Amino acid sequence: MISKYLILLCAPVMLAADLPKVDLHIHLHGEDHNTPEMKPADAAALSRKMGVRFGILAEGGCRGDIHDNQTLGEFLDEVRDQPLWRGLQVYGFDWANCLSSDLRGQLDYIAADALVFPDKNGKSIWLWLPNIEVGDAQDFMDRYVAFNERVLSQPIQIWANPTYVPEKLKAQYDALWTPARMDRLIQAAVRNHVAIEINAHFQVPSAAFIRRAKAAGAKFSFGSNSHVKGMGEIDYCLRIAQQCGLTAADIYVPARRPGR
Fold first, then answer.
1. Nearest-CA neighbor of 163 among 133, 153, 176, 201?
2. Does the structure show a pLDDT above 70 at 41?
3. CA-to-CA distance for 182 and 184, rounded, in angstroms?
4. What residue ranges in 30-84 does DSSP mark as E strands?
5. Phi and psi, residue 191, nearest 5°
6. Whole-angstrom Cα distance, residue 8 to residue 1?
7. Which residues are the signal sequence here (predicted)?
C-alpha cells in the first residue's frame, strides 16, 4: 500500500495558475550564532506541514562549509534519506577543481550568485551588508553586469539573488537595471540553461525583469533565501509569478523525487 506521506512527496503541490510550491533556497544554519542549526529531519517535517517542497543549500566550493570531497560527502549523507532536494550554493570560480564530478553529480542542483563581488582592486566585498560603498553607480553596474555574466557561464542550474543591488542603490534599482543590462543577463541565463531565482527575501528580480525574461524563454525558480527562519515562505514568489503570467512550465523543479 502506498502511504499518504509518499503520495504527498511525489505529487506536485499546485496553487492557482498551476504553480508548484517549491523552495529551493533554504539553509539549515542560522544567520548568527544565536540561531541553532536545524536538522534535516526537522526541515522535512516542516516541509510536509507547510505543503512546500524544500531544497537544502549547503554553501562553499573550495572554501566555506563545503570545501572538499569529504565535507560535500558528509552533507550528501546527512540529507540523503530525507524527502529533501540536495543543493550547493557555490562561491568563486574554482569550485569544480575542489569537488569531484561524482559527488557533484549526486546533487540535485547547483546555485550561484554575484553578491561576493570584487572591487576595482580585486578585493571581495559582500554586497548584502549594510553601508557598502560602491562608488559611481553606473561604473559599478557595468562591472556588476559583467561579473554576473561570468557567474552565469558556470555549470549551474540556478542564478540566485538575481539583480540584487546594495542597500544604498535600492532607490535607483529601476533606473540602474536598464533594458540593455537586463537583456544581457537574461540572454546569458537562457543561453546557459540557468533558471532565474525569484527571491522572496530580497524580493528580486523586478516584475519588469521577470516579464522580459519570460518573453525570452527563461526558466525561473522559487527561493525564500532563508537561514532557518522563514523556510518555505514563498508567498512573494507565487504572487509575483502569477502577476507576471508564469505557469508551471516556466518553473524549474529538480528531476529527482525528494527522498530517492
1. 176
2. yes
3. 6
4. 53-60
5. -60, -35
6. 14
7. 1-16
Could you tell me the residue ranges of all domains in the chain?
13-250
Taking residue 226's Cβ as centre, other Cβ atoms within 10 Å add up to 22
- Distance separating alpha carbons of residues 225 and 85, to the nearest angstrom: 15
Query: How many whole angstroms separate alpha carbon 43 and alpha carbon 230?
Result: 11
Average pLDDT, integer, range 178-199: 98
Any idea which residue has 517535517 for its cell? 45
- Distances in Å between the alpha carbon of 22 and those of 57, 98, 185? 13, 29, 24
How many angstroms separate the CA atoms of 177 and 163, rounded?
8
* 66 pLDDT more than 50: yes
One-letter identity of residue 142: D
Strands 158-159 and 195-199: parallel
Place of cell 528580486: 204
Q: What is the mean pLDDT of residues 92-109?
A: 97
Residue pair 26/57 in contact by the 8 Å Cβ criterion? yes
Out of 3.40.33.10, 3.20.20.140, 3.40.50.300, 2.130.10.10, the CATH code matching 13-250 is 3.20.20.140
Q: Could you tell me how many helices (H) and strands (E) the chain has, helices first?
A: 10, 10
> pTM for the whole thing?
0.91
Helix (H) or strand (E) holding 227: strand 226-227
